[in-house]
Each structure stands twice: as C-alpha cells, then as structure tokens.
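REVIEWER CHECKLIST
Item 1: Sequence provided? yes
Item 2: Single chain? yes
Item 3: Sequence as submitted:
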Amino acid sequence: MNEVQVLIVGGGPIGIACGVEAGKAGLSHVVIEKGCLTSAIHRFAANLIFFSTPDLLEIGGVPFIISGPKPARGEILVYYRRVAEHFRLNLQLYEKVNEIRRGSDGWFVIESSRGRYAARHVVLAIGFYDHPNLLSIPGEDLPKVSHYYHEPHPYYRQKVAVIGGQNSAAEAALDLWRNGAEVTLIHRREQLGATIKYWIRPDIENRLREGSIRALFNTEVVRIDDQGLTIRNGGVLAAIEIDFVFALTGYHADFDFLERAGVCLDGEMKKPSFNPASMETNIPGMYIAGVAAGGKDANKIFIENGREHARLIVEDILRKLA
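Item 4: Structure as written out by the authors:
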C-alpha cells in the first residue's frame, strides 16, 4: 500500500495547485487523475480563448507568458504541464479513485483502479466537467447528441442545434456558423445569459439579429429523434429537422462520489459542508477545493479564486501537524 501525507483527487488546475503547495511545504503527496492532466481543459473547444488574464491562472509563482491579450486553450495546456514538471508533482494519470474510507486511526484508505493508498489527509479537487446537466428527455442518448463541443469541421453543411444560452453555447454557435453549419440556437429563457464574455456578446447578438443564426427563445426541447427535435414554445409543439445536437446546458460535480466519501451536501443546491477558512469538510482531514465546493452554483468558483483553496488547505494541515 502506498502511503502519503496528502492524497489529492483530481488533476485539474486546482488539484495541481494543491500538489504544488503540499510539495513546497515538504508534505509527501500524490495527485490522482482519472484522465489526462487538466482533462477538462483538454476537452474544451479547440480554439477557445479564456476570459481570464494569464496572471490570474498562474500557480506556484511560475510566470504564464502568452502571445496575445488572453490565453488560448493550447497555451494553458502547455503552461500546466510546465508547472507539473517544474515542481516534479507526483502524478498518477488515467487512474480512477473508486472509494475513500476513513479508519478508526484517522487515516484514509483510498481504493483506486490501480491499487490502494493510505493518506493522512485527502483533498477532493474533482471539478465538474465530467457530469453534464442532462435534459432528461427521450433521445438524449442518441449518437447525434453531445454535451461537449470541440471543433466545427464535421458539421459543415449540416443542420445543427445548440441548446443553451451561456458562454459555451454562444461560442459553439458562432464557431459552427462561421465554418459552414446551419445553426439553430435554442434557449429556454427569453434572452442570452448575463455572463457571456464581453467580446462574444455583440458578435452573437448581431448574428441572431441578422438571422445568420436562428434563435428560438422561451423554447424547450422535449424530444430528440433521428429526424430532428420536437420543441415546445408557449405550450405549442413543433418539429424541426436537425442533423446534430449540442446540449450545452452546464455541468455539475460528482455529487454521488462526494456523498460516498461521507461529505454532507446541503439542500437542493447540494453545497458541500466545509469550513471556508480551511476548506475542511465535515469529515476531519478531508478537504474540498475548487468548483466542487460550490455545489450546483458552479459560476462563482473559477481557477482565479479556486487556486487560493490550496494555500488554505495546506496551512490547515501544517497547523495540525505542528
């Protein structure tokens, strides 16, 4: 059995930050990630430009130098690989944590897809991108439907529906339209979300206004089939022909995993129980970091403020060890 002082579940930016802080403090650690390093960012749209400036994404004091005013997905992937190498993080990639148990001696036993670990402290930096908010409608599991958007080329001259009204939906709709797709944007509310990036909003609004991208507001998709979609607007059902569907309706943390680990989730928003001064959950020695700490409210914790959780956690661990 591998034994460490700190075991970190999740190899995204916040998990990396926790590993960096643990290493700088002289704590033995391991970062276990079920996919590749920063798996969520790797799965973002290929040409995505981040809202943040590079200084807000930096970890461990390693400078993040980019070629333009805003960092692109590829630049961010290179940067976090560089951070992992610089700090010689103990990374276990493509390894899934299946179970976490806390023994009577206060140590945790962690069962993974590759073995077993013992850890004095556990940090849950599990992110949320692996679990899309489902529409829960017939046909959502068809091959023509995806909850992730990567690139436009396969959809050239195809009828594509983008479901959603936030950044990811707006950017996907624009990218698809610019690369030859016939795009319909469907949103259940009466207008686009208020948090759309400031340089994206005028672009998408102009495309909708001129009719280059068809907009269906106050509209719900009630069924997906091989021919297209059945939608409802004002109580009226209608069918539209669609070849491919991107249901970009947001994501959530793995709440089942958190509850199996013993973390209490509060109410309908499923906000984890933790001390904001230390990020320690209701289970002594178990911490939560990053967007998972927000429960269903996933729009308040980002890399910029989530990276601060790493410092709070390691400081609390050091106080307990003193």
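Item 5: Key structural point noted by reviewer: The CA atoms of residues 171 and 221 lie 20 Å apart.
Item 6: Recommendation: ____
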